[in-house]
Amino acid sequence: MQNKYLINASRKFWFWFWTQLMNGFAPSDLHGNYKRPKGITINSEYDINNENGQIYLLVGHSCPWCQRTLLVHEIKHLSKKVKVIFLKADVEHGEWIFNAKIKGCMRLSDLYKKANKKIIFRATLPLLVSFAKDKVNILSNESSQIIKLLNSIKIQPKYQVINIKDCNQKFLDLINNSINDGVYKCGFARNQLAYEKASENLFAAINEVENLLQKNKGDWIFGKELTYADIYLFPTLIRWELIYSKLFKCTEQELSSFKKIIEWRLKFFNLSNVKRTCFDNEWKKDYYKALFPLNPNQLIPVLSSLEEIMRLES
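^ Glutathione S-transferase, sequence as received from the core. Prediction below:
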């Protein structure tokens, strides 16, 4: 029979060690609720069309906030105005690294230092920067601001471009706080009470989206026109079956029970260039390997591909 004192001591040590890891991955408040660190923003009066340097959008394949910015970049056909640079996740050191040196930097944290930006928590993506000679100017690392900056870029496209409209800020905050952050609040909850609170808020918000889709006429959340609400929501819901329902314990309801949301998701997935922002193999590898506190044995579950999931919905 195993020594009960050894088991108890091991459990307590593991919980202490898990807490230290979580403090690095996902800071929380005193009640164990995940709290996302604030990022760097630029003056709201800034006009990106007056920027003199070459603009770059730095992103990672697996990050949903990066996908927000990629969606606007692809839908608006901004490749000639804004160059995209993909970074890769350094799982061993818990940071983003470049595939080749950029401005003498191999790590994202070095680029932040080169731009003389104090990092409050850690060097994060997405990152919108401009390079003018040897100067690195960080415009923003907040995806909510980046998508508006990208959407404001004036272009003369060869193809018809879908307009992305603004919408009710209160509803955007609901999606951002209760759904985008909500799945992380479930996965990174430090205790049962924090987890149940996050799950309740998450599914209440998803139900609000479902009800709005039933009420409004048209393909999108606010009717006939694509808005920031659609851009906000898609990166979270497209990862649902592969990541959040499994790894983050978002299990209170099956997403398939929300019929209007499933219809909406499929329509959005089939928009021009949207598939180019989806990297399901990278998602699985980075989430299940990088988030060690949530998946210590780092096993990647056997799952359907994203294409198979979407094909079943159609």
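The chain has two domains: 48-151, 169-313.
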